[in-house]
Protein: Aminotransferase class I/classII large domain-containing protein
Amino acid sequence: MTNYDSPNGFGQRKFSINRNTGVPRPARRFSMGQSEASSKVHRQFRAAHEGHLPHAGLDASRASTGVVWCTERAAEYGFFDEPEKWANLGQGAPEADDDIEGCFKRPTTIDIGSASREYGPTAGIKPLREAVARLYNEMHRQGKPSQYTWENVAIVPGGRAGLIRIAAVLNNAYVGFFIPDYTAYNEMLSLFKNFAAIPVPLSEEDGYHIHPNKIAEEISRGTGVILTSNPRNPTGRLVQNPELAEIQNLCRGRATFVSDEFYSGYNYTSGCDGSTVSAAENVVDVDEDDVLIIDGLTKRFRLPGWRVAWILGPKEFIKAIGSCGSYLDGGTNVPFQEAAIPMLDPALVRAEMAALQRHFRDKRDYVVARLRSMGFVIRHVPDSTFYLWLNLEGLPAPISDGLNFFQACLDEKVIVVPGIFFDLNPSRRRDLFDSPCHHFVRFSYGPKMDVLKMGCDGIERVINKFKKLTAQGHSATTNGITHGITNGIKTDTEAIED
Structure:
């Protein structure tokens, strides 16, 4: 029965302690105070995701993902005019230059033969498919009777294209996905009508961990496909064995497990020895287990501009995924496929991953220390990826949500991504202030160290500026109250308005 003893009937609602700030808070957040209508940047966000209504054939909300929207807003502040003066901590890309100690040199020229001028197979060229299969067998399937072959690999023009191809071949099913997770899943999950997308919220209290019992719950209610990033974007968390194996055991024969492993190289759990975590290790039969793995050159090989990625899975899946490329994207650039083959030598990859892990672990430790010194509470230091999922609730009220913090950072030439983008499809579901991701931003430590230092300096200026404004406001309020009591003339509200 509804309790009417308090506004909105929430009088009997239980309260819990916010572990980041130590302050009691409702067990579930509702926009009882602020709402979208009270914040300019929130209204701008909503307007940008409604579409241009006069054009009946256009739904512009499908044309903007988180990073794109943030970059467009930064452009209004001069980002494209002087990008070298900005700290772009929003772009989900690693530094791409050849100055990381221990990493191999990337090609600066590519030999283009006459054969590679022709259309290539939409599933990718056979030599690269063979190289990918060999890499996974060497790193994750040694001694196992079932081995990947080139027929278990499809080459795709980037991770997003891979996701779209997978979505295109899925049968009628419930697709379970987790919140927060990768922003581009939003488009994948909304464009196709052959399945129903089911969100599964994860808890901040236990570090957004995907427990096997969550998977069991989804399967028990009929979910036929489980989609997740692992390592996880944006939280920087990793599901390892034996839990990963348990999850795959639960899915075996019951659900297709889609594992987005683009950050698999950024693994800090094994002493930066170059090892990676992959669902490939727990596959029993490569042609029977419904496990689809997505990865590529983009992140761990630091070649986002090449747009060369791959999908591993059972031959039947791969045949369909390769075929649908003929009408979805036309296939991957052939010369870059050829140039990628030598990079996938297992010994070279292992050494590359070790150098990568040491370098990015050091950057992680730097930004964590800087942000903690500013007052951020980081309960869970990332054990993978190059992202920090920053809780803003301890900051001054005007910048304690992702959109307003993002807006304030633009004034200091810093770009971060508001957490609302990782609450998949938020602009159509509820008031933005109600989202569990509303009080977060994603901070990328993918850029070079000098950019990270510049970005941390800018964020520190934002924090100090708003702390000062808050202190001044508190002082003005206190003085106004004292003045009103003493003179019997002005109330505290009148003093603030003055």
Observations:
- Confidence is low (pLDDT under 50) at residues 1-15, 481-498.
- Residues 482 and 488 are 10 Å apart (CA to CA).
- Residues 449-487 form the longest helix (39 residues).
- The two ends are 45 Å apart (CA to CA).
